[in-house]
């Protein structure tokens, strides 16, 4: 899964890197974050027709917008369901009603600088595992957090879907009547990352961005893009501070000087 990521690149850098034509005011003003968490506002890159006289009838334009992380289907009764839809498994995109339509017509990129994942480690000898017989001590499974980022530098363009949800309790002229939300598509981890976690976000290389964002590309072709090549990633063990959403600072990316994962040093993280 992908439950935390970082997005601290300046909006103008994203404009240059992703050939963005328009930047919404709220996207330009969104502060950098080194610890993006579910339901946070996030930046998304989309291609949609320009609005002319209140209608989407203009030319297709690539823009940087803001959405809430956690997709809320258009048919949902309550936006709270989005907290459970921060990720969309690539294997079931066509089977889930919440994701099938967005896959066909509402795809996006979530620009990131990297993401975090936690590797579950073995319990120390003598500690009882969580869930053993009642009355016995239960030890918490130790985990090592990792910062995972593009090996060659540059932006990590997470493949995503977005959706519009209408709040029927608000008036037609209320600017907050529409909620835009997004989800990150995940897939089975690559060979070099599966030791950390069995899932990873789909991170598209630059040559796939145009087709992924193109609204004329259908669901079947989009599925082929999801299953295509991805960006090579580097890993770095980091400290436990990232585990709290209250912590949001550049030092979250610092190398853990004493990682509890015994394999960290041998794996060549950086």
Question: In brief, what are we looking at here?
Answer:
The protein is of the alpha+beta class. The chain has helices spanning 11-18, 25-29, 97-105, 206-213, 219-226; strands at 5-7, 22-23, 33-36, 41-52, 55-69, 87-89, 107-112, 114-120, 143-150, 156-166, 178-188, 199-201, 203-204, 233-237.
Structural description of this entry:
The protein is of the alpha+beta class. It has a single domain, classed as SOS response associated peptidase-like (hypothetical protein yedk fold). Helix content is 14%, strand content 34%. The chain has five helices and 14 strands. It has helices at residues 11-18, 25-29, 97-105, 206-213, 219-226, and strands at residues 5-7, 22-23, 33-36, 41-52, 55-69, 87-89, 107-112, 114-120, 143-150, 156-166, 178-188, 199-201, 203-204, 233-237. Helix 3 (97-105) packs across helix 5. The longest helix is centred in the middle third of the chain and has 9 residues, at 97-105. The radius of gyration is 20 Å and the shape is globular. Residues 239-270 are annotated as: Disordered. It holds the Pfam family SRAP. Keywords: Covalent protein-DNA linkage, DNA damage, DNA-binding, Hydrolase, Lyase, Protease.
CATH superfamily: SOS response associated peptidase-like
- Please, what is the average pLDDT? 91
CATH architecture: Alpha-Beta Complex
What would the principal axes of the Cα set say about the shape?
Answer: globular
Computed CA radius of gyration, to the nearest angstrom:
20 Å
Name the helix and strand elements from N-terminus to C-terminus, one letter apiece.
EHEHEEEEHEEEEEEEHHE
Beta-strand fraction estimate: 25-35%
Number of domains: 1
Largest sheet: 9 strands, mixed
> Helical amount among residues, as a percent range?
10-25%
Helix/strand-derived category reads alpha+beta
User: What is the CA–CA distance across the termini?
Assistant: 22 Å
CATH class: Alpha Beta
Low-confidence stretches: 131-137
Q: What's the total count of β strands?
A: 14
**What is the CATH topology?**
hypothetical protein yedk fold
Helix run count: 5
Pfam families: SRAP
Organism: Isoptericola cucumis
Region (Disordered): 239-270
Enzyme class: hydrolase
């Amino acid at each position: 899964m992908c439950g935390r990521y970082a997005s601290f690149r300046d909006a103008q850098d994203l404009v240059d890197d992703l050939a963005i034509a328009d930047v919404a005011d709220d996207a330009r003003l969104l502060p950098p974050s080194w610890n993006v968490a579910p339901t946070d506002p996030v930046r998304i890159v989309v291609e949609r027709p320009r609005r002319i006289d209140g209608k989407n009838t203009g030319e297709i334009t690539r823009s940087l917008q803001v959405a809430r992380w956690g997709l809320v289907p258009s048919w949902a009764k309550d936006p709270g369901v989005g907290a459970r839809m921060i990720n969309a498994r690539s294997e079931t995109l066509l089977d889930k009603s919440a994701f099938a339509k967005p896959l066909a017509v509402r795809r996006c990129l979530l620009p990131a600088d990297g993401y975090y994942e936690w590797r579950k480690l073995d319990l120390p000898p003598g500690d009882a595992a969580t869930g053993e017989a009642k009355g016995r001590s239960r030890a918490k499974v130790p985990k090592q957090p990792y910062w995972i980022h593009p090996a060659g530098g540059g932006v990590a363009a997470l493949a995503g879907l977005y959706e519009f949800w209408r709040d029927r309790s608000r008036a037609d002229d209320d600017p907050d009547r529409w909620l835009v939300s997004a989800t990150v598509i995940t897939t089975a981890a690559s060979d070099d990352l599966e030791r950390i976690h069995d899932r990873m976000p789909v991170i598209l290389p630059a040559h796939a961005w145009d087709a992924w964002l193109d609204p004329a590309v259908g669901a079947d072709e989009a599925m082929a893009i999801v299953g295509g090549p991805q960006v090579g990633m580097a890993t770095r063990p980091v400290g436990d501070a990232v585990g709290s959403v209250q912590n949001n600072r550049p030092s979250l990316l610092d190398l853990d000087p004493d990682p509890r994962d015994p394999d960290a040093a041998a794996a060549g993280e950086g």
